[in-house]
From TrEMBL:
One Pfam family hit: Glycos_transf_2
One annotated Gene Ontology cellular component of this protein: membrane
Name of the protein this chain belongs to: Dolichol-phosphate mannosyltransferase
Species for this entry: Arcticibacter pallidicorallinus
UniProt keyword annotations, A-Z: Glycosyltransferase, Transferase
Residues annotated as domain Glycosyltransferase 2-like: 7-173
Length: 242
């Protein structure tokens, strides 16, 4: 079946989750294609995907990269792949079910209703996070407060990684100039889209921490985001968004 929507899922050691997340996406009433970007997972994640390709021919794709190259570069790779094809709606989603695939049609609908970028937001209607320790909730919540303060963008969940882009957003953003690779990547993409004048809408979701596999969060990633926001804001003052 033809689909105008592509879900990009970066993976590194997600063998516990990958088959289930793929099957869940393809079970949705709305047709989606799926692109896995695997960074050389030593646990055999890519092999599981390739086995499933026979079952989901023409709908499931995989791009394999050598080594762990970072979340941001994985999405940039996926965005470029999507733009070479005919997709109108291009999604970011984690493999670990912290993002519920059943919310994909809601993000798509927000773009159909006028958004250029829709964000699955944990904080637009309070704090909707399940299974996180309070320290992690507070760190994430106040990171978004910090981003709003420094950048001036009116986004409640600035580090959110569950998103739907209209094609025109990714065509406009100079993807090779996106500098950050960790959580700062998520902030930079939103910040850049808003500076280009695109309409961004937050769609409330419930975020559930992973139950299988291990988290990729680290203090280095958080530090990049903290310092990167200041660098990003300063650089934007000398950039012409047209």
């Amino acid at each position: 079946m033809l689909a105008d929507s592509l879900v990009i899922i970066p993976t590194y050691n997600e063998k516990e989750n990958i088959e289930k997340i793929i099957r869940t996406v393809f079970a949705l009433a709305t047709p989606f294609h799926v692109l896995i970007i695997d960074d050389g997972s030593p646990d055999g994640t890519a092999d599981i995907v390739k086995q499933l390709q026979g079952e989901y021919s023409g709908k499931l794709f995989i791009e394999e990269r050598k080594g762990k190259l970072g979340l941001g570069t994985a999405y940039i790779h996926g965005f470029k792949w999507a733009l070479r094809h005919t997709y109108e709606f291009i999604f970011e989603m984690d493999a670990d079910f912290s993002h519920n695939p059943s919310d994909l049609p809601r993000l798509r609908q927000a773009c159909l209703d006028g958004a250029d970028l829709s964000i699955g937001s944990r904080y637009v209607t309070g704090v909707n996070v399940v299974n996180w320790p309070m320290s992690r909730v507070l760190m994430s919540y106040f990171a978004s407060v910090y981003v709003r303060f420094v950048t001036g963008i009116d986004i409640h969940d600035a580090t959110a990684g569950f998103k739907c882009y209209r094609r025109r957003v990714l065509e406009k953003i100079e993807l090779d100039k996106i500098r950050f690779v960790g959580y700062a990547f998520q902030i930079e993409m939103k910040f850049t889209a808003i500076n280009y004048g695109f309409t961004v809408v937050e769609v409330p979701i419930i975020f559930t921490d992973r139950t299988e596999g291990t988290s990729k969060m680290s203090t280095r990633i958080f530090r990049e985001a903290f310092l990167g926001v200041i660098q990003m804001k300063l650089s934007s003052l000398f950039r012409n968004y047209k």
